[in-house]
């Protein structure tokens, strides 16, 4: 094996920790921190890392996935299994770091480390593109740059590699020393230092000095003096240094930048001569990242001509996996960004958590630079596919084709991308999830074009990682043991349906809730198996409710009677949820109903009350706090009375999103999170702590110049008093862009500038004022995002974020991202 391979005894020795051997001698090649993502269980070592949740909690799950080697800090876990090896140590995280640092020092290769406020991942990926022809490179997967991400990245180093490129990110003082120890860089790159006052640092200088600790032992330090202003020469790291600047004297001093045709042409002074390069991107961030890469190539000894030739070929780096609608009822995950085993495992996890289709297909190219012989590599991939429930592989490339025997699942192979495309009409795709993953040179974009449904220019982008982050944000506020019901009614507040529900199921929420039976049925058909509560169970749908194992909300005696009657004579303990009215005065039982309710419930054991709940009317607002308290005590009184009348226990819940953030006393046994998952909470100041989940984008269809006396749109409502330029964009009221946004009430973002609407909003289009802006047809226009927020849009037309989100019509395509 060419993976780093350590025996479990060797590892215990490196960690100077106690080892409890209860299994065969084990050789470890993989370090695992998430019990759900296991590639090669026999060779995996699971670290019970404790974050917000105690990592020991996941040991069972890791064990059930085949792992037999563990690092724990709780002595009780040393003998849980009779066939596992367990290392006991005080600090599991530092064990992970020490082990990885040991692996780094075992190999003597040059290592480039990158830190800074922005651009780390892009610079890392671009340097990879620039240097891959000359080195066998090992690098951080995606943006693994944390206290956990760095050791996992560095652990990948093996004897095949000739260069490492790793990024490091920190959020507070004192963190960099550990990362410097693990990476032990020989070359350091500081990308930049943001102005923003970061939490966890008392000053700009302190933040800078902390970041520079990464480079204290480096041979070579690459930086811009613009970002190290305020430090003395002797405070800078590096035995030698290479500086770049656009403003002052430096080893690479940029003299001149000119945008040409979407690219940046740059001239600079280097060793007393003028040199030039072309960076194939036009935005400022890419310009800076490009200059950093340029400086790095020169500092590493490349000639100006070589550097120029390489930089020109840089390609876009996108770290996001995109889930899109495909042809023939398929879903497509598009990931042509990097084709190595760890990114493949991440993409397969995403594939695996999307259960909406019965079949999963992977289209995979040859993988490069893995440092492994083909037979080993493809055998490993074949095992991975089996474990991740992939049903079919379409392999493209001569290497994967030569190893076709390794795959036991349905498979077909093509020599190259063109031969797949030529045969495309005979390849069958229907009702399946397809992961497209190929090394850059295979140009799998051409394949995506064939199988992804053309997206109409207005799209709602949903960031699934942000959604999972928001779920965690609320979980962190819960007392141990409190369950979570996630509200996915109304297409998950407009954000999607099964895609979101699958993610929530993967993240182990306890319950989902929908408004109507239909919504519940479609979730079941998409592979959702956790309990689902239906809030408006119409009697005509009882049959379907039972058939799909949905759990009705019971809000009055009539519905309870008819549901019980409907249930077959042999039905026992069918789960139902009782809704109590504590002040909303919408649906639900009140005190006077309880006697009859209990009588009816005790008449037979056809139904069983699994939960009793109510709903807060004003949890987000201080003004209503007194009423909230009143609702809570009323709820407790009624739930107590029901409890006395039943001979079993049930779950109590009342909190919605703002209830969780503002009323910790209202958690009872479960909470119901709705809008907070999607990034809003009226109870938090400016949604602090929540991440933006949804971005609505459209494009410019046409540009027009209008004179001062001309009008724009229906009823001649729009006019630019000075004349100017109008852009027509592809979003109208039929897409959910309310007519009230017309006549300048609504604003959109284009190239970072806020521009008003002009005239009335039409059904499929509207017009915005782009006078004086450098824009062209096809340019992207943001309707809302993290900057121009839904909350701001809600203010513009005097409504609430809930309505803005849920009004986005179904014809607007949703695209999901996962990192
Ligand atoms: C929609 C809904 C919620 C969620 O409310 P948010 O304010 O979006 O968190 C909770 N409970 C019930 C009964 C609901 O209908």
Automatic annotation (TrEMBL):
<feature type="binding site">
    <location>
        <position position="586"/>
    </location>
    <ligand>
        <name>substrate</name>
    </ligand>
</feature>
<dbReference type="InterPro" id="IPR000821">
    <property type="entry name" value="Ala_racemase"/>
</dbReference>
<dbReference type="InterPro" id="IPR029066">
    <property type="entry name" value="PLP-binding_barrel"/>
</dbReference>
<dbReference type="GO" id="GO:0005829">
    <property type="term" value="C:cytosol"/>
</dbReference>
<feature type="domain" description="Alanine racemase C-terminal">
    <location>
        <begin position="693"/>
        <end position="817"/>
    </location>
</feature>
<dbReference type="Pfam" id="PF08245">
    <property type="entry name" value="Mur_ligase_M"/>
</dbReference>
<dbReference type="InterPro" id="IPR036615">
    <property type="entry name" value="Mur_ligase_C_dom_sf"/>
</dbReference>
<dbReference type="InterPro" id="IPR011079">
    <property type="entry name" value="Ala_racemase_C"/>
</dbReference>
<feature type="active site" description="Proton acceptor; specific for D-alanine">
    <location>
        <position position="489"/>
    </location>
</feature>
<feature type="modified residue" description="N6-(pyridoxal phosphate)lysine">
    <location>
        <position position="489"/>
    </location>
</feature>
<feature type="binding site">
    <location>
        <position position="763"/>
    </location>
    <ligand>
        <name>substrate</name>
    </ligand>
</feature>
<dbReference type="GO" id="GO:0030170">
    <property type="term" value="F:pyridoxal phosphate binding"/>
</dbReference>
<comment type="pathway">
    <text>Amino-acid biosynthesis; D-alanine biosynthesis; D-alanine from L-alanine: step 1/1.</text>
</comment>
<protein>
    <recommendedName>
        <fullName>Alanine racemase</fullName>
        <ecNumber>5.1.1.1</ecNumber>
    </recommendedName>
</protein>
<dbReference type="GO" id="GO:0030632">
    <property type="term" value="P:D-alanine biosynthetic process"/>
</dbReference>
<dbReference type="InterPro" id="IPR009006">
    <property type="entry name" value="Ala_racemase/Decarboxylase_C"/>
</dbReference>
<dbReference type="InterPro" id="IPR013221">
    <property type="entry name" value="Mur_ligase_cen"/>
</dbReference>
<keyword id="KW-0663">Pyridoxal phosphate</keyword>
<dbReference type="Pfam" id="PF01168">
    <property type="entry name" value="Ala_racemase_N"/>
</dbReference>
<feature type="active site" description="Proton acceptor; specific for L-alanine">
    <location>
        <position position="714"/>
    </location>
</feature>
<dbReference type="GO" id="GO:0016881">
    <property type="term" value="F:acid-amino acid ligase activity"/>
</dbReference>
<dbReference type="InterPro" id="IPR036565">
    <property type="entry name" value="Mur-like_cat_sf"/>
</dbReference>
<dbReference type="GO" id="GO:0005524">
    <property type="term" value="F:ATP binding"/>
</dbReference>
<keyword id="KW-0436">Ligase</keyword>
<dbReference type="InterPro" id="IPR001608">
    <property type="entry name" value="Ala_racemase_N"/>
</dbReference>
<dbReference type="InterPro" id="IPR035911">
    <property type="entry name" value="MurE/MurF_N"/>
</dbReference>
<dbReference type="Pfam" id="PF00842">
    <property type="entry name" value="Ala_racemase_C"/>
</dbReference>
<keyword id="KW-0413">Isomerase</keyword>
<dbReference type="GO" id="GO:0008784">
    <property type="term" value="F:alanine racemase activity"/>
</dbReference>
<comment type="similarity">
    <text>Belongs to the alanine racemase family.</text>
</comment>
<comment type="function">
    <text>Catalyzes the interconversion of L-alanine and D-alanine. May also act on other amino acids.</text>
</comment>
